[in-house]
Amino acid sequence: MAEVVIVENAEAAGALVATEIVELIERRADAVLGLATGSTPLPVYQALRTQLAGRDVSQVRGFALDEYVGIDPAHPESYRSVITREVVEPLGLDPQRIHVPNGALATIQHAGDDYEAAIDAAGGVDLQILGIGTDGHIGFNEPGSSFASRTRVKTLTEQTREDNARFFDSIDDVPMHCITQGLGTILKARHLVLLAFGEGKAEAVAGAVEGPLTALLPGSAIQLHPHATIVVDEAAASRLALADYYRYTFANKPAWQGI
Ligand code: PGA
User: Is residue 66 annotated as a catalytic residue, yes or no?
Assistant: First the structure.
């Protein structure tokens, strides 16, 4: 089963995951990181600013999960811009090694296949950071997504567009379509690290970790992965039936195991 780590707050989660990423980069200078956008991964990127300071990150590679279709890459809320602003620039990564799905309309019909080929050519993702939507999506794989899906165009749900309207002037400005790594793409990464904070995510987290495997809750796909780590605060953990067991397991985990 997935390992669930219940931490005090988002800052502690960020520090824990950043430590794992630093160790990965120490083992492998050209590690391939799977990068997520949204509010949830920001504490990880924040912690990495400190933990990676002074280290050589020139070989580190990265693949973002998703992008809006038809958005100008220079728009401040394109995921290309967000990844550049929140990850590439503050961490000093080489922008040439950081990939984001191409949402340009002119090439959208083969953009998914191109992205899959680029991930494969890099040897796959070592550690994939994930958030989870209130509707259970990971990446932009909305309910109904196939567990075998690859990078492709999806239609965003009304709920997701409402959730993301805070980044735009109005909900009308939130794009209708996205290009996202599929659940099958995400499951190929060697380590999944899903973070969630706050009561609003509690139901999605419980469904993903303990509920049935179901297309209705795409996050439940993580149960198929041999190495998935779920890092949540108390509020996001509040609907987990086995919360006490997860605390007990983590408290008694050998230090050498990492997450
Ligand atoms: P959030 O989004 O981190 O902004 O809550 C998570 C997601 O939609 O995957």
Answer: yes
At residue 169 the predicted structure's pLDDT band, cuts being 50, 70 and 90, is very high
Mean pLDDT for 5-19 is 98
> Is 142 labeled as catalytic in the residue annotation?
yes
Which domains does the chain carry?
A: 3-229 (3.40.50.1360)
Structural contact between residues 164 and 177, judged by C-beta atoms closer than 8 angstroms = no
Cα of 64 to ligand 1 centre, how many Å?
Answer: 14
Residue 81, pLDDT above cutoff 90:
yes
Task: For 194-217, write each residue's pLDDT tens digit.
Answer: 999 999 999 999 999 999 999 999
Minimum-distance ligand 1 atom for the alpha carbon of 37: 3
* pLDDT tens figures, 220-258: 999 999 999 999 999 999 999 999 999 999 999 888 887
> What is this structure's pTM?
0.96
Query: What is the best residue among 66, 135, 157, 163 to mutate for testing ligand 1's pocket, by most ligand atoms within 8 Å of CB?
Result: 163
